[in-house]
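Appendix B, example 12.
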Amino acid sequence: MTHADNTKRPAARLGLKERYAMMTRGLGWDTTYQSMDDVFPFDKFEGIKIHDWDQWEDPFRLTMDAYWKFQGEKEKKLYAIIDAFQQNNGQFNISDPRYLNTLKLFLTGVSPLEYAAHRGYAMAGRSLRGVGARVACQMQSIDELRHAQTQFHTISHFNKYFNGLHDPQHMHDRVWYLSVPKSYFEDAMSAGPFEFVTAISFSFEYVLTNLLFMPFMSGAAYNGDMATVTFGFSAQSDESRHMTLGLEVVKFILEQDPDNVPIVQKWVDKWFWRGYRLLTLVAMMMDYMLPKRVMSWSEAWEMYFEKNGGALFQDLARYGIRMPKYHEVASKEKSRISHEAWAIFNNYGHAANFNVWVPRPDEMDWLSEKYPETFDRMYRPRFAWLAEQEQQGKRWFNNTLPMLCQTCQIPMAFTEPDDPTKICYRESSYHGMKHHFCSDGCKDIFDDEPEKYVQAWLPVHQIYQGNCFPEGTDPTVPGFNPLAAVLDYYHIAAGADNGEFNTSPDKANWERWTGQDLSAPPAQPAQPKVA
């Protein structure tokens, strides 16, 4: 006599592909009492044609339960290292107090962009009717929020000891040079979902992200800031997924319909140029703000864009996508953009939230070595004059306000692509008003969507109109100081948070804490032995 086997057998484990399908496409449905076009109105108005959303593939096939597990492990490691950094007073182990100004630039210029990306991907995910793309955007949205939190938390430790780090969110919405990164993301967030993902995930994160993160994180490592290195690499592991999302979404769009090709090409042209102009801040940081330098901006551009980016666009050529418009202009400018940018900040360092300085003689020799065709001929004489003025007690700042580019919002100090002795100036008229541009790239972007860019909040215009003073300010009172009022509006303490480094509290505090005299000439680094 036999008995029935009632033992419960475990269900067969799903493979990675099947599990991913159940946790993404398996959770989606088509609407019934409302049309899909009414629920998802924004993924068609840009003109992009998608015939089969099931063709969307996520090469990581990451599901939310696995995502939380990975991110939780990274958080434990990150905060353990940050705690050790704080307990061991790691802020005093950095190479030079001038390095702190790169943190001020990063905290006010980059970290708020992570939060903007969090919001942007949440909106993009809501707008895409494909379930796979929606899940990918949701995960990236959470990634970006985490990045903002870890960056603010890490750098907040430095705020206990140094100036200019106290109010980054307030400054991001007001300070003149921070309108450059702010306008970039607001431009992307006010576009459609496909343009947003092309702008951020592809043009910025895939094509240009190495030019942002690698200089900052490598620069932090070279200068002894291991806390910043830690959050940088914690974020960079997420960037690999973000870069893949950018490349995959562009390939997906191009494969869906040939009519999508010219639309994507226009976006690639636009967002390459906007991203390149934004990276001006990074070029300046690499060549001038790192006491111990990793590489020059020119070398980074050649490595990360001309070689790596060139290979990428060779791959995309089979889809009908060419290199971005004006990429050759960017390559012509690689030997001078950082010098022009630092000149701007030397002019207006009394109105920023970080300190500026004239490069030291050994640093100018390094710049001469890295830029043999341009630095000694065009830029060293300017810095030599500024150094003479400083030695005579006449540290020079520009007390007038510059003309800004209507598109990128950078002061118009860039030069003609083929003539570095002549300021590049372009203009367009719209509804009887003239608008000014720093380049052909910025002019083209404006001319394509003038109704969008005429609404730009330009800090110089707003200051002159009296819109950048604290509430209740009366500019008609005798002896009114407009710069002091603007700095109050920015929450910048004059002399403490900004201005010349050599007289700054950060320098004085550093010397007191470490016993170093920074007025003495720096020791020359030992030359490596040649085998």
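Residues 522-531 have pLDDT under 50 and may be disordered. The chain is about 55% helix and 5% strand.
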